Amino acid sequence: MNTLHVSSIVLTFSAPTSPEIISTTPFHFSLKLKTDRILRRKMDYVYAPGKNHLFVPGPVNIPEPVLRAMNRNNEDYRSPAIPALTKTLLEDVKKIFKSTTGTPFMIPTTGTGAWESALTNTLSPGDRIVSFLIGQFSLLWIDQQQRLNFNVDVVESEWGQGANLDVLESKLAEDGGHTIKAICIVHNETATGVTNDLSKVRFLLDKYKHPALLLVDGVSSICALDFRMDEWGVDVALTGSQKALSLPTGIGIICASPKALEASKTSTSVKVFFDWKDYLKFYKLGTYWPYTPSIQLLYGLRAALDLLFEEGIDNVIARHSRLGKATRLAVEAWGLKNCTQKEEWYSDTVTAVLVPSYIDSSEIVRRAWKRYNLSLGLGLNKVAGKVFRIGHLGNLNELQLLGCLAGVEMILKDVGYPIKLGSGVAAASAYLQNNIPLIPSRI
Amino acid sequence: MNTLHVSSIVLTFSAPTSPEIISTTPFHFSLKLKTDRILRRKMDYVYAPGKNHLFVPGPVNIPEPVLRAMNRNNEDYRSPAIPALTKTLLEDVKKIFKSTTGTPFMIPTTGTGAWESALTNTLSPGDRIVSFLIGQFSLLWIDQQQRLNFNVDVVESEWGQGANLDVLESKLAEDGGHTIKAICIVHNETATGVTNDLSKVRFLLDKYKHPALLLVDGVSSICALDFRMDEWGVDVALTGSQKALSLPTGIGIICASPKALEASKTSTSVKVFFDWKDYLKFYKLGTYWPYTPSIQLLYGLRAALDLLFEEGIDNVIARHSRLGKATRLAVEAWGLKNCTQKEEWYSDTVTAVLVPSYIDSSEIVRRAWKRYNLSLGLGLNKVAGKVFRIGHLGNLNELQLLGCLAGVEMILKDVGYPIKLGSGVAAASAYLQNNIPLIPSRI
Amino acid sequence: MNTLHVSSIVLTFSAPTSPEIISTTPFHFSLKLKTDRILRRKMDYVYAPGKNHLFVPGPVNIPEPVLRAMNRNNEDYRSPAIPALTKTLLEDVKKIFKSTTGTPFMIPTTGTGAWESALTNTLSPGDRIVSFLIGQFSLLWIDQQQRLNFNVDVVESEWGQGANLDVLESKLAEDGGHTIKAICIVHNETATGVTNDLSKVRFLLDKYKHPALLLVDGVSSICALDFRMDEWGVDVALTGSQKALSLPTGIGIICASPKALEASKTSTSVKVFFDWKDYLKFYKLGTYWPYTPSIQLLYGLRAALDLLFEEGIDNVIARHSRLGKATRLAVEAWGLKNCTQKEEWYSDTVTAVLVPSYIDSSEIVRRAWKRYNLSLGLGLNKVAGKVFRIGHLGNLNELQLLGCLAGVEMILKDVGYPIKLGSGVAAASAYLQNNIPLIPSRI
Amino acid sequence: MNTLHVSSIVLTFSAPTSPEIISTTPFHFSLKLKTDRILRRKMDYVYAPGKNHLFVPGPVNIPEPVLRAMNRNNEDYRSPAIPALTKTLLEDVKKIFKSTTGTPFMIPTTGTGAWESALTNTLSPGDRIVSFLIGQFSLLWIDQQQRLNFNVDVVESEWGQGANLDVLESKLAEDGGHTIKAICIVHNETATGVTNDLSKVRFLLDKYKHPALLLVDGVSSICALDFRMDEWGVDVALTGSQKALSLPTGIGIICASPKALEASKTSTSVKVFFDWKDYLKFYKLGTYWPYTPSIQLLYGLRAALDLLFEEGIDNVIARHSRLGKATRLAVEAWGLKNCTQKEEWYSDTVTAVLVPSYIDSSEIVRRAWKRYNLSLGLGLNKVAGKVFRIGHLGNLNELQLLGCLAGVEMILKDVGYPIKLGSGVAAASAYLQNNIPLIPSRI
């Protein structure tokens, strides 16, 4: 029917429940509608004028050329067009991993599925792996590893610290028998804004001539942070389309080293959907797809890669470095602490900001959305209520970030923090004004 | 750089290799480019004037309102908007299954992943299941069942026939000990255009008071053929977004009966990404998503459901019935045989047409694409070269179908079949002219 | 508020009022809503499943790549980007006129505005012009010429006939004093499907060494019919973006010969918005726009031209020739008459079909829309109720046309015409099957 | 061919030529490409990462829901759907003028065409009108008035000042014979950021019981500034779709009072395309369109009005007031002068900022675009090189503005102005933090 009666809408924000460390539950902030029927017709019922300022660390802003590329009808994926397109994607997607020897897989799934694909193709149930718990996403990955029946040595750090590589070194040193089959590490922990040093992991593996596979979650790093798959000897690296690639969610992108491919031949983990073998078979046939891909995401990925290559991957990384540095300078100017405890772990894709104990950080996130059309990241699990997060990854420029920072300043004032308005923007822009390059296409 | 040198493009069509019955490989028709670099910039390099006539049985045509709904930037999926939207989707998506008691899951995956989710959540390794091999897609599902370590009784029929329910009856009759844990059946075999009678399966299970779960692949049936989850006692039903829902690929939609949910509590199959428990936990929290969904597909699904409900699910089914009947009348008028051997199995979503032995059906598909901008379905595996398929599902109307049928007539003439041009169109339109209803919104 | 009460919707179709020959009113078919408020939220309230089959002679189907190109935010039109884009458009748009010496103007207006621009820039009030009345659109142009205070010799033909060039010859022969300042002629009269022979007009002007300007309405011809501005000595030619260019309405595209430009220097007609001088001034400055253009249409035009050039203008013309011929063969097979009285005038962009006197052609158009989601052209003015029109121009292919023809057959049966279903499709496809070329990008 | 050789691209920015007061030429900043051919394929050749920050005073940012509404194929505008849609638009568009008695016209043209329509429908050649020259756009309108053969009393003010209403009063006082037929006034002069007091004009007309028509250019005011057509006795008001309505360019929207309609009956100005009579005839017929409208813009306008009404016109005006005030506070904090000389004329849609004489304001605009992906408005004509303009109208929110202001600060530093970074943002956000309301849909 075309009759919609809506007498009123009530939004209530649930207070964050006190989280348990063992919880694997990410948090949301929710609303209740007296009647949900209104939504059936009204696509944008939380409309606010102007752009939504999207500063969660994923999904991120999609550039207009990518939206355009995806604005299309379905196609027969068995026609010659899609394999030809796929071929270029497989060749080019390796560049975001800085790999020439790897084999990529573009699986219709999310980061969680990409994790599962990485693990189940290279390892067998009961295999011993070393995994670092440093925040919510490493926690969730470890939870998956355990549920997939691997034997996980969890190396825990305080949230805000990086992976404890001293413990890794001890374990490697003690493991003359090579019982450790894989090291699993999140390159950039999205919950705390901590970037781990992968080259050091490789150094340790080499130092002890340890053959363990190196499996890396690059979900919030690849295409944004310096990532060198071949140079660092990463065996499986993975990311998701909705992160720095700036696409919608829907492709889990994995790159496997020759050693990982070799390992996949003997892995006894049960899998079908995530099985690389099916992909490899279709790669050989030149048809590429064991099941139906999203036509729209393939064209979108083509456009996304074209934009990244036009900008230059290293320039993309430099841009993220500017955005990260500028954000940290603002946080410092505000007199707030970065959740990340040491400079060596600072993340250029997300900054988790600690708030004073008298402020509930979730209130900052709610207020950002309710008053400023600004989307910030919640503190998750152990740091819920204690940090809010500014995601600064993907298709984003400096003026967008400064608008966000100006917004955060007003929100901090809203919630009673004694901020000097403009202080963070001043600090950030002092740095940026010295460092932003001219736009090459416009010089 | 902006320099593209392309000296020439050569497309070659690989002849279909003679397929083995045991092969689980769907076929494509492929092309080779002397250089693929051209594709990097040229999104539509196989451009042809006018609309592409998309008559493969999926992915299917996306209606304009759905394309519009998906033409949007990413959003924070943890804000109140997405859970509120998701809530309406979960309520409404049950209607396409005709279920009030089921629990739906909208998993970011394809039909293959939905299959895996259905199996691994309800069954345990070694469980005995009965599964019907009647075509390429039931073959692929059986292959998955075996690789997931279930103990499969494969009940094979000749391709073109429906599931052999006599064999099922025998097995049920003999299974007083209830060793059979599940019956797995494809409602509509997309490779041969065969629709199985699910009510009869239920009848047999009831007759023998057999507690086996009934797991149904409704990928090319749900939203197009009459499907009654609750009435037929289906325990798990599943479809994919790119089929009759007329969306892009990317959501595997599953509906689980209370009995299936109960079974999931004791299933010991290893899974994480596909684990319903994670969804159920987040359903309780009211945040719905254990990992990042595609914002675009959620809004697209909302629009797709709205269109289906506006038309009326039963009217949608009636429309598919008209399209199917009209297609079969055309095939008959052409003097060709339907691959489906009996009327009781005729599919209203796809028609597989047998060609005379002196014609290679793949040539028909190639020619359709190369000359008429028409996408038809290849014959797969056992029937490769022997049938071509006309998909008539999803957002499609009668004049679109008649354009396709007129195209098929010309192609048949192209390949040397002695067709009377116009004959199929005449037969189809004689039927349609008597049966097309007025468009309700325009009366 | 979000409350929409809609108790019911009633659509009524008004019978076409009997039209007067002198009327300059195009006709529509209309509907009444008990309440219009429903429309405020419901964008697609006359939704019907599947594609709308758009066979009016404009606006026509927009190709997907053009829709994509236009799917974009506004931009500053004073930045370097828009002039650079405009420069390529001005160069390339001349090719659709087959002119190298002409000067193009892309005015933010419709065809009616383009008419006005052509007249007011080259002529002065009181100037004598010869103009041919052969249908509704030439009638409307003549009406405009008279209201703009030109002294019009109206040369009328029966509707269904072409311009009477014998009368033109007499007038030229008698006009030794060159009082005739311009010949105004519609290349293709959209109301009756009549194409005039422009080369003959040029021949006559040359024969009598007459300096009159030749002003041509190419609205439904340019980019679809053979049009040779330079060769035929056309002084002003014009079209609209929503016709064979297959864009939305919004750009009136004009090309002026050097002689027309020269004439514009002395024209005393009052105009500002349509004044070419403003454009010429900005062309010199290299900024091109005297007022704000539509950013979206500029990018859309770029994409539309790219597609036309990729296909090849001559191939585009050949495609329209096929579509026109096929349509006429169908009409003949149905036993109906073409409104166009002689073969020499047959139009390849629109066919006006005469119906028997016992049928109201408007009922055919209504029924097409109400039952088949098919949009046909009404008979206008003198031929209202007597003809319906099939537009076959723009981004359209053969199978689309055959779907339309199959639809027309069913409608003819609906309204009581004794048609043999399939007969028109058979005739059309017999021709097409012999003449459709392979798609070059897919060979 | 698919071969593009581009050896290099050189962009050069032309220095602004010293403008003459009498010039009616708006300025652009231009670039030259060694070869333009690159543009033929590359739609976004001046790509820069992240959003373009569009702060010219038109065309402005289009909201996503409007882009979605316009993302559609053409339709038959003679079907019942388009008149029904048009009817709602004509009713609703009056609300943006705050008129219940006016008659709206939505003409496929730009603001320049809307000007012409206002003048030629209500006045006759030779008619005396009073017109105020206060900046580039009033200059251009006066130029048009003169070229259309009206007898214009030009009342000039220094650029930066409002209309000199004292002179108007004198003229009205002296005009007992009512030789003045119309007062033409720009509500908001976009070149200088000056808003005129229309209520005072009405007061003077009433005081002297003068029957002159009041014609108002509301191009950069309507939908953004307080505008009261009926209350202020405005006879013709007009705007363009690409301004505060936040659509693409393409509709000139005019509202005519009953008195203006009456005047149109006797106007002898020559016009056809812009003639209101044609519209009025089709309004009566219920078909609304004398020539083809843009289907996309009609649906876009529907969506744009829906968004404006959802926000509430008065809330929209309040939002612009906030944006204007915040911008002026920033300018003040920077130690720069507003081009607008008195507070009573401050514009809430555009701020023209005077730069010190040692800075060329065009360099600020160039730098904004080349380094920060920020589009600012140039100084035009008399103020070229002396001011740059920040447009703050249309679908825009506070954080977007703050990002722009932060960008302007960096640019000012770039060009050698001794700015304290953060100072303007601090001043603006201090005000905004006190005044931004919660977003109603999210409370």
TrEMBL record, chains A, B, C, D:
One Gene Ontology term of the molecular function aspect: L-serine-pyruvate transaminase activity
Residues in coiled coil: none
Keyword presence, Transferase: yes
Cofactor(s) needed for function: pyridoxal 5'-phosphate
GO CC annotations, alphabetized: peroxisome
Stored Pfam families: Aminotran_5 (PF00266)
Keyword Transferase: yes
A biological process term (GO) from this entry: glycine biosynthetic process, by transamination of glyoxylate
Superkingdom in the source lineage: Eukaryota
InterPro entries attached to this UniProt entry: Aminotrans_V_dom (IPR000192), Aminotrans_V_PyrdxlP_BS (IPR020578), SP_NH2Trfase/AEP_transaminase (IPR024169)
Domain Aminotransferase class V: start-end pairs: 59-338
Listed EC numbers: 2.6.1.44
Residues in the signal sequence: none
Alphabetic keyword roster: Aminotransferase, Pyridoxal phosphate, Transferase
Family: Belongs to the class-V pyridoxal-phosphate-dependent aminotransferase family.
Descriptive protein name: alanine--glyoxylate transaminase
Organism: Cucurbita argyrosperma subsp. sororia
High-level lineage: Eukaryota, Viridiplantae, Streptophyta, Embryophyta, Tracheophyta
